[in-house]
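Intended use. Records like the one below are meant for learning the mapping from a protein sequence to its folded structure. Do not use them to infer anything beyond what is encoded.
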Amino acid sequence: MFGFSAKQLIGVAIFLFAIFVGVPLIIGVTGRWDFYFTLTSVALLAIASAGVWLTFYIGRINIGQGAFALIGAYVSAILVVKAGWSFWLSLPAAGVFAALVAVLIGLPILRLRGVYFAMITLVLTQVVTLTALALPITNGAKGISSIPLPSGVSLFGIPLIPDFGAMENTKLAFYYTACILMIVTYAALYRLVNSRLGHLCRSMQQNEELASSIGVNIAHIRIVIFAISSFFGGIGGAMFGSIAQSVYPSSFQVADSVNFMLNCFLGGLGYVFGPMLGTLVLYFGWDLLFELGKYQMLVYSIILIAVIRFLPNGLLSLRFGKGGDK
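Structure written out for the chain above:
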């Protein structure tokens, strides 16, 4: 299944049990219901970070994922609030729209050298923020608020998804939804990396000139990968908007785009599941360092520099060594 070994399947089973059974049991015993929101945020940030990792996989630095998360959040909000769509239909639509925007952006700039692509993506989040401030459909600085909670979904009278609006506490429902999306995202990412397209991406990462000489359409693959990357950002942003029931031009900023990239570095660029671990560690690590007050940023920077210096392949290299395990 997905090319997993027996040992890996056992690990996946333990991971799934921990997410869907272990965590709810622990939260139920401790009464820390706020952890549902925290872990939901980690899952959604991990989805967006997966897209950034994918662009790293073709040798490109993407510092603009916050832009596509913001696009996804606005598209979903507009479709739900102003067009009356179900959230569950707006979710893939938000991802597809973000991917289409990525294609339009990628067509001219993905033919440039990597450093120029990185510089352009750096300003994308601010460009989308200014666009959201200027367009009437986004309500400018007021943003879009009072977004209704996801409605229920039934098939032939059989309820498949409950109506979130009818629940007394939606934290658990959003937690499960975010975790399912994260698992599907990383399963798709793992499958892509181990497919023919993934092998072509790997050859591009090693030597683009050599890959081009054997007939690989470099520009085409770059655009496809960038579109998939942005799709992940779009659905992550759409889910954030639904949880917050609002979206504003400042919902995602340049700092978020940088953090998506740092999640990949911290977890390990050589590992598919690196962004997931990096997101978890960075999110909770930042909260723990909050106790240091004014020294928080200093200690945070020192730790990141130390990790990059002594663990250039990320935290997962401690487990898998230099060879890695995709």
